Amino acid sequence: MKFPAFLFSLFVSRLADQMLLFLVPLVVFQVTQSVAWSGYAFAAETFPRFLSFPVCGALCDRVSPLKLLRGSQIFRALVCLLGVLGSEALGGIGWLVGLSAVCGVLTTQGVMAREVMLPQIANGHRFDRVLAHAQTAEQTGMVLGPLVAAALFAHWPWQAVVGAAAALFLLADAATAYWRHGNPVPLLHEPHAEPGHFLRPIQTALLHVLRLPGLMRLTVVTAGVNLVIGVTLASSAALVTGLYQRSANYYAGLQMLGAVATVVVLLAIARGAFALRKMGVVSFLLIFGGGVLTAISPNHWGYALGFLLVTGFDKMFSIYIRVHRQKIIPAKDYGKTTGVIVLLNNLSQPVAGLLVGALAGTAQTGWVILALCLLMAALGIAAVISHRASAAAAAASSATSP
Question: How many angstroms separate the CA atoms of 370 and 137, rounded?
């Protein structure tokens, strides 16, 4: 099985996607010199990709995820080219935000297709280690994405950088085709159409979230973590280049260091034997601590340390959540349920962007970040209390049963 080709396609796709994510807030802030507009652009870019998760997840249970994955890569390349042509013809940075939003929806389809395929591709191997390898490929793309985008943006207009991203999406699709040619084994769980109207899969997924033990608790905690991650991503370009007066290259280097830290953590998970619960607790606490540092730091060194903690341990927490989800959710409903959960988890990221835009100037952003960190901590404490109460009730029930 040509699994390295699959990982390479994941790496290249993430590289191109990260280039677009890097460009939008930076270009908007450079043009407008407004942290509010930078936050609004982040929200406009991320809302569509998160809102589309339930639909994309349901599609993965109805249509071959491989077809959806390849389609997402080809259409992202096409959207990039159409956005560049529109900008050249009519002008304005709105084309960049718009094409990135559309590519975000297509990225969601690709992410969901891979999410459904990974447990089946990895049959017979430890799922946490397979996830670690897959996320290492993603993070390597995230390491190089800002660096490549900054290097190209220093010499080219953003339209040319977007054109380069289109070429990378096509390369990712070629790698996917090569992987599939060397791995013709059918997927274990074939897609199936659920009877009833199209909203029926979403209804099924919501019932799973409410009824499957522990799934709601995991969803709430992850939403709290994503508040801190979202506010960090939404405000980082403005804070680094505005409040701390650092260059775009410094900002790209900081993002690269965050991704490098994540790769190191993921490689340690892939080669080690870490207890799942310990991974969850450690990553939660370090993300919280990093968020507080970004909020209160008086200089760019403290901010950089906090940023590295938030971005560096994000994927460790993600592995903890995804392994738990995979154990709880029935395989036949994995796509639709995961899509709804990811939407519920990640809506907090663009919400954080809107809060930055509505409530914060560059100097006041720290207070918004700190408030969201405290909310994350409160949700985590509530989840622990709920878990202990459920465990105590289950123990009492088993003790009194005949």
Answer: 32
